[in-house]
Every structure is written in structure tokens, then in C-alpha cells.
Specification:
Bound molecules: iron/sulfur cluster
CATH superfamily of the domain at 1-76 in chain C: NADH-ubiquinone/plastoquinone oxidoreductase chain 6, subunit NuoJ
Oligomer: heterotrimer
Structural class of chain C: mainly alpha
Structural class of chain B: alpha+beta
Number of domains of chain B: 2
Number of strands of chain C: 0
Strand order of the largest sheet of chain B: 2-3-5
Shape of chain B: elongated
Distance between the termini of chain C: 75 Å
Chains: A mainly alpha, B alpha+beta, C mainly alpha
Largest interface: A-C, 28 and 25 residues
Number of strands of chain B: 5
Distance between the termini of chain B: 50 Å
Radius of gyration of chain C: 25 Å
Order of helices and strands of chain C: HHHHHHHH
CATH architecture of the domain at 1-76 in chain C: Up-down Bundle
CATH class of the domain at 1-76 in chain C: Mainly Alpha
Number of helices of chain C: 8
Largest sheet of chain C: none
Strand content of chain B: 5-15%
Largest sheet of chain B: 3 strands, antiparallel
Amino acid sequence: MDWFFIISSGVKIAVITFGIILPLVALSSLAERKVSAFIQDRIGPNRVGIPMTLLGGKKDIAFFGLVQPLADGLKFILKEDFTPKHVRKFYFWLAPALVLVPALLTVGVIPFGSTLKLLGHHVPLVIADLNIGPLFVFAISSLGVYGIVLAGWASNSKYPFLGGVRSSSQMISYEIALGLSVIPVLMIFQELNLGAIVRFQDKNGWLLLPLWGDGLSLQRWLLLVPLAISFVVFTVSIFAETNRMPFDLPECETELVAGYHTEYSSMKFALFFLGEYAAMIVGSGLIVTLFLGGWSIPFGDKIGLGFEAAQNTWWVGLLHLGCFLTKVVAFIFFFMWVRWTLPRFRFDQLMRLGWVFFFEIALFNVFLTALILMLVK
Amino acid sequence: MSYVVERPKLTLAERMYFPSILKGLSITFGHLFRFVTGKGKVTMSYPEEKWDDSLPEHYRGAPTLVTDEHGRERCVACQLCEFICPPRAITILPEPIPAGEAFAKVEKRPKAFEIDMIRCIYCGMCEEVCPEQAIFLRKDYAITGTSRAEMVHDKTRLYQLGGVREGLVNKWNPLK
Amino acid sequence: MPSVLFYLFSAIMLGFGILVVALRNPVSSALSLAASFLGLAALFVSLGAFFIGVIQVLVYAGAVMVLFLFIIMLLDIQAEQRRKLNLPAVIGGSLLVLVFALQLATVLGDFPAGHRILNAAPLSPTAALEARRAAGTVHASIDQDLAAGKLPDVKLIGETLFSQYNFHLQIIGVLLLVATVGVIVISRREDKTAAPAEPSSPAPTPP
Ligand code: SF4
Ligand code: SF4
């Protein structure tokens, strides 16, 4: 453990959290509103820009509303931070933090890029290169449910409470489908290190797009069947885990006012909001890493833009980073697209889908994958 | 008589959700695509673009007072509109026209005429009831103010908004 | 591992462990237990046992304690009343703890590995690889990791579970299944007498 490692880790934590995740959160809150507007034939927020008129200029620069998140943030900070009298104070304050912190912690194991050649050192673009990547993400994100449950309980009123109860049962149910659906993937990689998983896909074709390297074998193409099932189950479970639209029952406003954050205002509410978006970004990152090749460029290994190239040239590392972010942003768009298309599920439908349908199909999928791995070499 | 509502039988594809989800996704993506390529219909950006030009003739905007072609205020302070106004938005203080003035034979005119635009519901009853065709609903719809007092239109403001209406306006004229 | 961290995480674990018993509000107790689990997981991680640490978080803190919390909230268990100190119980309890600690100390004292500190016995993947080669166990992915000087703890645990302890694993699986089926049967039987019969035809709707 040398000094370079410690310093570079610190820098990575700061840059990835404050330079990538939080700006992404801010921008996706704007993008969400824009996408929803486009889908509904509206324009969406397009006013907030640099207020040149305040500084004595002639016209404001609107920038297509790109400064909107800043205004939202300012609004959240300036609003009255109201704590109702009937809440359980300590837990009421603790809950928002418990939602945001796990969401940001899980970022630690996701490889944002291959390596960056800096000052003669190879800096892997992942904060913690753990051997148990996906498990770490599941473990830490399962802690996020404490925040929601506590918020519901500490608010000491019925709608938040119902939201909290719903969210905990929903998250526990879908964790099972999530865990089971990822097993076929891990069986193929024989590896739990997310960095190694991406390097494998860099060499041998993405899991869902085995077009180069060893990916062009019969086995990999047969495996596409269980992998597609895995992908669907995993993606839907991530939707459920992050409380995103078709499954946003914990905060469904038609039944529960605003669910678990009904009693929250100002910055405390903003933390829930940030936590939800951060979880969405990490979820997209995980799906991209597991199924869509992480930072790897299609055919990158064949055209000299693969992992080895990044060892020698610094800009390939940056290219990989950009590739990863592009994929993640595309997947975040998918999240939004689904949100503004589908109506909310009923709670019993949600539970049935999780327990009766996804659980069984994920279990069956494990056997199917094992069978293919055994029979077709 | 009671009857049983038949639930439609769902086909397998419908029960699987996925085909309908894909269909929905393609519909929303179509809207998004049309927007991005600039072909779709989009809502107006309000303060820059307005409906004003396409407002129909019978549009009921803010009630205003008008003068006739001789510059006489048409209102004779009969107070009919004050009595008919459902939310009681109108307050009139009549005064006799002093002898010797140009229109002394009209006898009465409003000394003060106020319409509280916070109360007004734009129903058009005042216009309907006025025997002198002195009060009209115009096309102004963006009546704003920063205080309650500002939202009460006094006589000058009402004439300023209303302007002149020439000729004897036939009450049952379809165009007013 | 820097010993500062060891003491920090031990303090977290023990401190919250004490809070579990000391606090009167059941929700606080449950949360303290979860925090204590987190401290324990951190200790595991600092020993290099990432898998066990993460499973500790995933299973105990993430699933079991959430269920506990869920049930405590649903049943709306109120905070216990403060009772007067029961002197015999306190003395008995502390005696029990003392005896237990003594027993642990003696057992660990007799255990040879208990005398060595971690730094004196570093993990040696290459030595492990040679031992595996000598024993004749081959597994490409594990050997590769060991050769690269990494500790593939998840893979090793998997290998041990599914080769050496396969039978035990199956038995435990069946036991759990039996328990699950039992729970379902018990809850079903109550259902039959209590729940009203399903309406055979859809209820008429007023026009
Ligand atoms: S506006 Fe018409 S109805 Fe009202 S007081 Fe004047 S004349 Fe009478
Ligand atoms: S439009 Fe209706 S509400 Fe408004 S002043 Fe006339 S009568 Fe009153």
C-alpha cells in the first residue's frame, strides 16, 4: 500500500462521487422532466439559464434550461426545513441519510473505465477492486431499505407508514429475483470481480452481444436464451429495487399522498430524491457492467482499443470511461422512457410477479444455464 | 335491473404484459421522436406565443366600460349590472349630471364604477343585462396585479380597457 | 490492518451490542443490532474474508433485521417500561458473562493458532496453490487466482461446500424446505376455517 494508491483512491472517490455521480443525478433530474415533456408533446423546463438581466445584460441566456438543477437545488436549500411535531426526531433525521449513503457506497465497486495511465502508474478506474462486486452491491443496497422503512415509521402517520411497509416487502421480495437472476451470469464468467467480468467481455464479446473473440461459439449463442431471461428479470428487479415507476408503490401519490416522504420537506426530501436517482444510476451501471460490456468498446479488442491498449496509451482509458458513461446514460434514458410509458402496478400484481413468476423463472434459468454449460462445449 | 359486467378475457399475450409494454414503449418513443425531429405538435410557450389572434369573436374576457362616438360615457348608472352580477363584483356610485353639461338630459352617470376582478367570474351577465350597451366583455384575459387593490378596476381603468364603441349596438346582433 | 480500525470496528460492534440490550425501544434495539452486524462485517472484511463480511451484511443486516424491523413496526410494540434494577438478576447475568469470557479465553489459549498474530501468519496464495497441487485438486479459475497472488475466497468456499460438504448442504437445504412447507401448511389450515368462501359468480353491479 503505497502513497500513490492512497492518494489516487482519494482522488477517485472525490472525482467519481462529486464529478460523475452527483452531476449525473442533477442532470438526470432535468433529463427526466425533459424526456417526460417530449413524450407528452411538451417542451419542458427551458427557461433557467444565466440571468444576464440581473447582471445588467439585455437578455437572459436560457441554455435550454440546463441550469434548472441548480435552481432546484437552491430552492431545496432555501425552503423551510419543517419537522412536524409528532415525528420521532432522531430517526426522522437519520432516515434520509440512510437512503443516500448506501446508494453512493455501491458506486465503489463499479468499474468506470479500464485503466488510466497517469505519471507512469496504471490507475484502475474503480474505487475498490473487490472480488465480490455484485454481492457487495446487493448487500449495501439492501441497507437502503432501512432509510425508507425508518422514514415511514419515524413520520408517525399512516401514509408514510404504509409506504415504508410496502417498500420493505417489495425490496425483500425482489432481492431474491435479483440475486437468482444474476447467478447464470456469474456461472458464465466464473468470476465475481466486476473488473474481471468487464475484461472478459472486452475480449470475448458482451454477454448480450457475443460478436467477437470467443463469443462466436455455439455455446455462447445458445446461452443467449437464458441470458435474455436473466437480463429481463434483472432489469425489472432493479426497477423494483430502486422504486422506479411501474413499481413506485412506496410513494404512489394516488394512494399514499407521497408515501414514505410525505412528512419531509426541504433538504431532507432532497436527500430521498438524490438517493433514488443515485440508486438508479448505480443500477444502470451494474446492468451495463454485467450484460452490456461495461466500459468495453464493441470490437475494441480487435481494433486495438481493448484493455491492452489502455495499458499503454492514456486516451484509450478516457475513451473507455466515455463509453461506459454513454451506455449508462442510454440506460438511464431507458429508465425514464419506461417511467413515462407504463402505469403503476397494483401491489398484489407486483408481489405475484416477484414471487410467482420471476422467482420460478430465475430458478429455472439457473438450471438451463448449467445444462447448456455442461452439454455444449 | 342488475346486470353483470363481463370482464374481457385476456389472451396469453396480454397476460404476459410484455407485448403490451413493448407497444406502449413504441408509442411513447414515437412521440419523443416526432418531437426531437421537430414534426410533432407541441404546446405553446405562453408569454412568447399567445392565443390572441385566434380568439373567437364571442370570447369572454375582462368586463370593461365603453364610450360612444361622441365621447359620452354610455353607462347611465342604472345599477342593473350591479344587481345581476352573481359574485357581486361590481360597485357603482351614481351621481346626477349637473344641468348645463353637454349630456345633461341623460340625467345620471356613475361617479365611481368598480369591478373587483378577483371576484369576477367572467360570466357576461353584466353585458347581457345592460340596457345601454355600456359594459362589454373584451378579450383581455391576463388580468394580473400584485395586490388586491390593484385587482379592483376603477372607472378610468375600465374606460381605458374598453375604449370606444361606435354606433348603436344591436343587442341581439350575433357579433355583439 | 491498521489496529486503529480494528479497535474502531470492535468498539462499534460491542457498543451497539450493549445498546441492543440497554435501549428500551424495540426499534432502536433492532437498529443497534443491525449496526452491530455492520461492525462485525467490517471486522471480517479487515481479516480479508470479504465474502463472509458481505454475506453478513446481505443476510443479517439486509434481510433478517429488515424483517425484524418490519414485524416490530407492524405489531406496533411499544417501548418497555423502565423497571427497577433487579439485583440478583444483574449479578447472575454478569457472572454468566464472566464465566463465558473465561471459558473463551481458556479455549482460545489452548488453540495453537490463538497465540499467533495475523502479521506472523500472512496469507500465502502460492503456498496454498502448491498444497492444492500436492493434494491433486484442480480448478482452473481458482488456480489462476492463486497463481496471480489473489485470494479467491468465494470460489474456495464454493468448492469446499459443494465437494467436501455437499451432503450436509443438501440436508440443510431439505431441512429448510421442510420448515417452509410446514409454515405454509399451518397458515393454510387456519385459512380454510376463517376465510369466507370465494364468491362463485362476480358480484352484480348496479346499472
Ligand atoms: S353599465 Fe349598463 S347596466 Fe351597468 S349601470 Fe351602466 S348602464 Fe346600467
Ligand atoms: S362578467 Fe359576470 S361576474 Fe364579471 S362583472 Fe360581469 S356580471 Fe359580474
